[in-house]
Amino acid sequence: MKNPKVKKAAKVPEETAAGNGLLNRRALLRGALFSAGLAAANASIAKADESIGTHAPIWMKTPGRSFSGYGMPAKSQANVKRIYTIVPGDAGTGSSRTPLHLLEGTITPNGLHYERHHNGIPDIDPAKHELYIHGMVKRPLAFSVDALKRYPMETHIHFLECSGNSAVMIAKQPEQSTAGALNGLVSCSEWTGVRLATLLAEAGVTKEAKWVIAEGADAAAMSRSIPLEKCLDDAVIALFQNGEAIRPEQGFPMRLLVPGFEGNMNVKWLRRLNVIDRPVDARDETSHYTELLPNGKAYQYMFPMGVKSMILKPSFGIDLKGQGLYEISGLAWSGAGIVSKVEVSVDGGKNWTQAALTGPVLPRALTRFRLPWKWNGQPSVMMSRATDETGAVQPTRSDWLAQYGPGQIYHFNAIQGWGVNANGTVKNVYV
Amino acid sequence: MSTSKYKYILLIPVFLLPVIAFAFVPALFAQQGPNLGRPLTPQEIRNIDITVEPNGKGLPAGSGSVSQGAAVYAKNCQYCHGPKGEGKPFNQLTGGVGTLATAKPVKTPVSYWPVATTLFDYIRRAMPLPAPESLTNDEVYAVTAYLLSIDGVVPKDAVLDAKSLPKVKMPNRNGFVHWHPKPAR
Known about the structure:
The complex is a heterodimer. Chain A contains six helices and 25 strands. Chain A has helices spanning 25-30, 145-148, 179-183, 196-203, 228-232, 397-403, and strands at 16-19, 22-23, 94-96, 115-117, 130-135, 141-144, 153-161, 186-195, 211-216, 223-227, 236-241, 244-245, 255-257, 270-276, 291-292, 298-300, 308-313, 324-333, 339-345, 353-354, 356-357, 367-375, 380-388, 417-420, 426-429. Chain A has a five-stranded mixed beta sheet. In chain A, strands 7, 8, 11, 12 and 13 form a five-stranded antiparallel beta sheet that branches. The longest helix of chain A has 8 residues, at 196-203. Chain A is globular, with a radius of gyration of 25 Å. Chain B is mainly alpha-helical. Chain B has eight helices and four strands. In chain B, strands 2-3 form a two-stranded antiparallel sheet. The longest helix of chain B has 14 residues, at 137-150. The termini of chain B are far apart. Strand 6 (141-144) of chain A pairs antiparallel with strand 1 (38-39) of chain B, so a sheet runs across the interface.
């Protein structure tokens, strides 16, 4: 058969940015580099005694399967799973991580949202679960799940990040694992529920109230002290996650959502809100989720998650296959608001190029950044550095470590690096 | 019925209304709900309110001694936390006092936690892991006393109750800097 003629792709002048093959993000926005424009002319024409099935894949020649009540991912996606290890004798305590490096966009599928449990996932009968509000209120109240569903609802897209995310990055030697295994205690969902301020107004908060102690209905009765002003601002009692009832792992039938604050404060299986005039030094705000300083003192009640970013493609396990054009892509977020800028370096931080933030760009939500890179086959070190709307910039790892006492892991948000060797293999490197 | 208490609003001069609205800014975030909250009875609140505050508010009746606590510990805690709270296979509960500013800080409830009420509050709600909320109030006071006695935070003959527990002086009671509401850096 004669080779069909292939029209040559129109030559697009490449705009290089900082060098080392990083191209200008505007090139990406125009989409020019990726529209190869391969138009085949005079493609093969079937012979008279041939059916077109001769050249068709098997799944086009047999009817597909029928409907299902709840759809599942494609069979080939069986490896896209949360990453976890179970501690014998302590099966319900610990965490599982989102495989960030295997996902795209900004929303985490419900079944892949990271988990952190303190004594397993409770099996709650929603007909028997109520949300209690008491303490410094004029009218102590209980709300059934059905009652809450009649309240005005709001929908917001927000990330949740465990304060202990990326803890392994403080190890002396860089751990060689995937981006999800290293940094997967962060996820992002569209949450729908009732503004907590609406319920607090109904209960009538008294003027001496300053804090709200939120408690879960799990076997740890996990509790945290939340400032009242946050509860009256943007806190939500979330009932739905990405359109469906919140998953048991995420707090079914309801969780507290305090956007931008440590994941642990977004109390799951929310059962009780005790309105009082002080924080209570609960176990998870003394033993855990406090930050020891070099002088032996410790920060307590440090709530917002700092500005952070990471490159997910390429990354460990997603190697480069020869010279040529690649898209560097990753996620950025900040507990303080909107990500205003992400810069990328492929030379270990000597030169930086601004990446495109390919929307949606929302406050306290995962934000996708992308930048085209023409890899010339030379060893490289990729890094990303995010800045948020308050002007906060990701620190270097050494600056981050210097702030805290030895072995401190919480609120790790330092710049991370991926080394690429001449074969295109990607490794975790400290920069 | 509830409109009557608002009737005096009509007496407020119109030019003051924006000022008044501003004074209640947080309330502006609240939307009007259908008022479906069910009133909680005082008895219901007593049954659900397990918060213990650092000043001792919320501590129940009952008491427990160090020696009683040693028996509670041996039966319910030691298989996870080792003899005398030394740790292994799970968290270390004792020791580490004075290590926080060193190159190898050892954070335990005794060395790190600022108030003793946290021990009572946490043990009562979350421990032992296979059977949380199963220990009696007396047993929780006792095991708290036992753990605090190992490093000498309370004497070997101590008996803890709602009065004495909040008075326990934890080694790291001045060790925490509240970051909220003002960033400390």
